[in-house]
Each structure stands twice: as C-alpha cells, then as structure tokens.
Specification:
Length: about 300
C-alpha cells in the first residue's frame, strides 16, 4: 500500500464497517451450501487481523470447509504459523518478490526485508504446512532474479508461481512496458532446467503449470495480462466490508453484509448470493485489452481492499 496514498491521515474503514468473525462464518456457510469447497483468506495482509486463527478454526470445524488457504506477505508468519496449522489451515501462499532485501523492500513499498519472510517460510514448512510462493515479476525491478528465485525454491521442493505485473487498482503505477510476458519466463526457466506443461488440477485453475523434467517439482505462471482466462474463471471475492465482487477487476460489489445485517436468515442469504452469481456477465480482463488500445481508464478496487 503506497505510503504516498495510504498515509497516517488516510480514512481507513472503522471496525463496525468490517465483517465480524460471526458474519464471515455465516456468509461462508451460504457459499458452502452453493457448492464452494475452498476459501482463501487474503488481504491486504490477513495476519494483521487478531482473530484470524479463530476464523480459520471455525471455517474448518463449524462450516466444514474441505480446504481453507491463506495468502500472506509472510512478515508475521513466523509468529502465527503453528497456531494456523493447529487451527486446521490446509495450505499457504507466501509472496516473495525478491531474494534481495533491498529489491524486496522496493517491491513491497515498505522496506520489508525478505530474509525474515524466507526464514518464516522454512519454519512453516518444517511444521508440515504445504506452501506455494507467489512472485510478481516487473521488468527492470526484479525480472533479473527469475532464475535465482526458481533455483532457491526448486531446492526446497516448493512450487513457485510467477505472476505477470497486473493493472489492478489505481495506485501501483502499472504500465505495459514493465510486464514480463509469461512465455518469456517459461523460455528462460526451460533454458536452465527443461520443463514441460502439466494438465490443470481442476477446471478454471488460474496458473498454467509446468514440471521440471528431472522430477524436481514444478512452477506455475499466472498470465492474466497476456493470456486472460475470463471464460473459465469461477472465483468470487468477498471484501473485508462484506461486498461480493464477481471479478478482481470489477469496481462493482454487491453488499452481502448489508443484506445480512438487515436480518436475512441463512436461506435468504444463500438465495441472495445465488442470484448474484447466476446473473454475472463479467469479462473485465478481456475488456481491459480493448481499454488499453483506446486509452480508457476505469476505477478498479485496490488489491489491499479486495485481495488476489
């Protein structure tokens, strides 16, 4: 979250505007009734929420979710990894944009040292938590580290997923020249360690998967800029203030929390969510290419608000 935008005087949401743990659990229960089998807790930074481990526990034990995952920048992971495992967390995704402290600090905008994050990843892995690594690649900033990052996590048996620099939100200074296309990354990795495509684990999987032919694990590529995947997307996103977004790039959100606070019971809430989903017509990632050609700009929610 850029300091020049989200400084000390920024009007952040108040606690009463946010979903409580009880409300998260009730909304999640409606999604499960509609067939959802996986919920990912993301941010902003989810580990800043003091009741996060309790939310994980309740999603597993009360809602009965088969899979609860967490995406984090890893800064507080060392403090909470054991509690998250004990609460029933199934898997972790940790953001690591650079192995070098200075470059990592530039990428995260806060000067956070990647060495602390890397140590926390090792601790969480030793606890038995399955971990994937997310790396956003920006030309001229960290693209020279593609092979080094691959080597580091390949040695540890952890899947590294490279993410094209996305034009999400309005504050990340996105420009097309900083995008390193997925196929360039694949070619560079393949030149060092031969890789081959792997079939998706499920329909709508956003990462294209490649395995090392020597059996040393795999990498993933998320190419939402050069290869949009709108037609197979089946992800819903619930913001921290309870608005349901049917696309990461859509500024429109449906106020599920307001519906709940107006007195909707579980059945009514489930029907409300079902009607939103069945009526969606999103193809914002496809449309974005057209907007770029015409120079159009549109408001998009920040990643710190909506998550990845």
């Amino acid at each position: 979250m850029p300091k020049e935008v989200f400084g000390a005087d920024y009007p952040f949401l108040h606690d009463l505007q946010l979903m409580s743990a009880d409300e998260i659990v009730q909304i999640a229960r409606s999604f499960v009734e509609l067939g959802v089998t996986k919920i990912r807790l993301t941010g902003g930074e989810p580990l800043l929420r003091k009741d996060l481990t309790e939310i994980v526990r309740r999603l597993k034990s009360e809602v009965g979710l088969p899979e609860v995952a967490l995406t984090t920048n890893g800064w507080l992971l060392g403090r909470y990894a054991e509690a998250l495992r004990d609460a029933g967390l199934d898997r972790l995704n940790v953001s690591v944009d650079s192995l070098a402290a200075e470059t990592a600090g530039k990428m995260n905008g806060l000067g956070l040292d990647s060495r602390k994050v890397l140590a926390a990843i090792d601790e969480a892995s030793a606890l038995g938590l399955p971990i994937k690594i997310n790396t956003a690649v920006r030309r001229g900033i960290n693209d020279h580290e593609v092979e080094d990052l691959a080597a580091y996590f390949r040695e540890r048996g952890q899947t590294l997923r490279f993410i094209e620099f996305m034009d999400v939100g309005n504050t990340n200074g996105w420009n097309a020249e900083e995008v390193v296309p997925a196929q360039e990354i694949v070619s560079r990795i393949n030149a060092r360690w031969p890789i081959e495509p792997v079939e998706p684990a499920y329909r709508g999987e956003v990462a294209a998967r490649y395995r090392y032919t020597d059996g040393s694990g795999e990498i993933g590529i998320i190419a939402s800029i050069t290869e949009p995947f709108c037609k197979d997307c089946h992800r819903a996103r619930l913001s921290v203030n309870g608005r349901l977004h049917t696309c990461l790039f859509s500024s429109l959100g449906w106020d599920v929390l307001a519906e709940l606070r107006k007195g909707a019971d579980q059945e009514a809430l489930t029907l409300y969510i079902s009607n939103i989903w069945s009526g969606r017509v999103d193809r914002y990632s496809d449309e974005r290419a057209d907007q770029a050609l015409t120079g159009q700009k549109s408001d998009k929610p920040e990643m710190s608000y909506l998550g990845g």
